[in-house]
Amino acid sequence: MAQPQQERAVRTRAALIKAAAEEFDLAGYAGTSTTKIIKRAGSTMGALYFHFGSKEGVARAVMAEQAADLPELTGRSGLQHLVDLTLELAHELRSNVLLRAGVRLAVEQGAFGIQDDTAYQLWITRFKEELIVADALGELREGADPAGFARVLVAAYSGTQLLSRISTGHEDLRERIVELWRYFLPAVATPEVIGKLDFGERGPEAVQ
């Protein structure tokens, strides 16, 4: 009997996360109420408070789980893999409501009284891992620091996506990320590697 109850609890929590992400994406933290969340989820206030404790708790969960359903990129490594990841994130921010809501809440969090850099640290770690591989492959300039550049890249990406969201609803985000790389790559990558990078529809010439 315990197993069906556990499965039902998992489904209820997932439905609340999804509904909360959709509401936060539409209206931000201030414009979202727990009533709207449970109505969209087809759930109850008791379930929301059981799983998350408060609206802030739901927001924290959405931020923490923003990358939970992102597709796994395979097939390439090093700096190309990092470029692919940043462009895939640009695509996902247009189509993935959980990621979009999690990113929005991470930006807005000061307005609801928390300071939680967990989501940012997640991406710093992920980018640093790719840069460490790139460094081992000889793709980075001498003296380039994977950890330092990962922090700069996450900060710049965050600002770029925010401006793109405000300006075009993320419609131009891919173009803006390619532009970001055009300025960053000469500082961290060898010229030989830059010439070989694939930027998909824009082509490697976009950063030369």
Description:
The chain contains ten helices and no strands. The chain has two domains: 2-63, Arc Repressor Mutant, subunit A, CATH 1.10.10.60; 78-207, Orthogonal Bundle (Tetracycline Repressor, domain 2), CATH 1.10.357.10. With 208 residues, it is an all-alpha fold. It has helices at residues 2-27, 34-41, 45-52, 55-64, 78-95, 97-108, 118-136, 146-168, 173-188, 191-196. α5 (78-95) runs antiparallel to α9 (173-188) and α7 crosses α8 (146-168).
Topology summary:
Blueprint: H1 2-27, H2 34-41, H3 45-52, H4 55-64, H5 78-95, H6 97-108, H7 118-136, H8 146-168, H9 173-188, H10 191-196
Helix pairs in contact: 1-2, 1-4, 1-6, 3-4, 4-6, 5-7, 5-9, 7-8, 8-9
InterPro entries: ArpA-like, DNA-bd_HTH_TetR-type_CS, Homeodomain-like_sf, HTH-type_TetR-like_transc_reg, HTH_TetR, Tet_transcr_reg_TetR-rel_C_sf
Pfam families: TetR_N (PF00440)
Keywords: DNA-binding, Transcription, Transcription regulation
Keywords:
transcription, ScbR family autoregulator-binding transcription factor, 10 helices, HTH-type_TetR-like_transc_reg, 208 residues, disordered C terminus, mainly alpha, Arc Repressor Mutant, subunit A, HTH_TetR, 2 domains, transcription regulation, Tetracycline Repressor, domain 2
Q: Output the radius of gyration.
A: 19 Å
- Proportion in helices: over 70%
The CATH homology group name of the largest domain: Tetracycline Repressor, domain 2
Q: What is the number of beta strands? A: 0
CATH class of the largest domain reads Mainly Alpha
Largest sheet at a glance? none
In round numbers, the mean pLDDT is 91
The CA-CA distance between the termini, in Å, is 62 Å
